Amino acid sequence: MKYIQPKVFQNSFTCPHCGAIAKQDWWMINWDGEQNSDNKETHQLRIGTCHHCQKTTLWVVDKMYYPDTGNAPFPNPEIPESVLKLYIEASSISSKSPRGAAALLRLSIQKLCQELGEPGKNINTDIGNLVKNGLPVIVQQSLDIVRVTGNDAVHPGQIDTDNPETVGQLFDLVNIIIEYMIALPKKVSGIYNSLPRDKVKGISDRDGH
User: Fold this and answer.
1) Domain segments of the chain as ranges
2) Which of the pair, 178 or 200, is modelled with greater confidence?
């Protein structure tokens, strides 16, 4: 699903309320209630209204404070519950503390490795084991990006984890990992299992299963 990160005064973005990519109407006000300036940059409070659901976002200058869900993409529908809790928590603080969100996302993929059958004690070892078992390169790279960036969030290094855009990419990668490792196999398995039994048996006989 395409995701357009919400930004103040943007004509359209993915609404954090309804998830639709929708046009936004904007109005501005100062703390004292004044609205008569022609220069929108002079108004500290900015309110966007979604054309799709009619709900609003509240911004102070360029930071969204309502809803308090951050600017992260919606989680993949197939995300496991244990991973979802961390994803939502990371999303809720992503605008205020990108570094904290990065650390939580690192923990989320550690939980995901457990969901995929790994011990979950050492994330680097877990990823290595998954690679040995045929993990696609794109998933391995995604896992390692989140792992390394999350590590730098806890132990500051060369990656700027205070940059919201850097952390925003991590949310995308977590969703990509879920898509490849859980959603796609589930979808393909469902379609495969709907094939006629004699066709499935023929495939099994061909492959010696």
Assistant:
1) 12-66, 81-194
2) 178
